[in-house]
Write a structure and sequence with these properties.
Helices cover 31% and strands 24% of the residues. It contains nine helices and 14 strands. It has a five-stranded mixed beta sheet with strand order 1-2-3-4-5, sandwiched between helices. It has a five-stranded mixed beta sheet with strand order 10-11-12-13-14. The longest helix has 14 residues.
Amino acid sequence: MHVARLKGLARAHLDTATIEGEIVSLPDGAVTVLDGHMMASVGADLGTLYLRVALDRPKRLTVFADDPGVVARHCAGLALSTDVRGPDGEASLAVPLPDIVGGLSDVALVGLLRDTGLDVSVEHGRAIGTLHGLVVARLAPDGSLEVGVGEVDMAAATMMNGTDAAALARVVEQVRLHRVSGRRHPIGRLSSARWLRSALREDPAQIAPGEWRDVEPIKPSKGVRDETPACALIDANRLVVCTAVLDRTLIPEVLDQCSRFDVHFVSIAVPPNDVLLATRLTNDLFAVESSVVEVTPPWV
């Protein structure tokens, strides 16, 4: 279906009577390259398309997208000529990201979390407390405090122990015991990108000196097993992107964070084993200058 769709769109809206060469099916689209011109049809899975762009490095990119406003926003951050159109073939303008909302308004809750040794921040309107990057407490929609590691653990803790300071302290003690360098424990395998960001916040000299500020992910976290890159700003204009898994979430996260902030430089922090692949994927890909930085992960 996607292959036929791309052929039809190219025939109807581009100076391409026929597409010669191989058309590659994507999980949610199709792509082909003709004389350095990549043409693609894509649905919701944009990350896989950008991986193809990073690997094939076309000179020009034309995308027929189900959500062309988002793709146009992303393409504005790529270092190549792009043409973004909707499924009807009409050219599209970029749709900006919504403003970040929410703040730390519950002074008592913030004090409790910080007194327990947690880092406190707000993501998508909800206050969270993290230890070595792992979320162990958060403010529920009804204003109550949820503690634990993951959705199931938080629900069980609420039913069995309540969510008072003592329950929070018990969870923090267990995470502090097992989430340490060199210790093989399931807790040490969760939220690796966030743990890497937490370690670099404590030692920013591995990246660059300056004022460090964590920034929320573009999409809400799916839980403690979510490995979406964790981002931060140094001195407001250097974007630090920490990742432990080089997958289809990396490039969209970089492009969206660059569009949200006035980014002048991107530092992509990865463990040693990922340096070569990360460099191949991102070198000269973005409109802003970027570099891959090899960092020592805190879990080794």
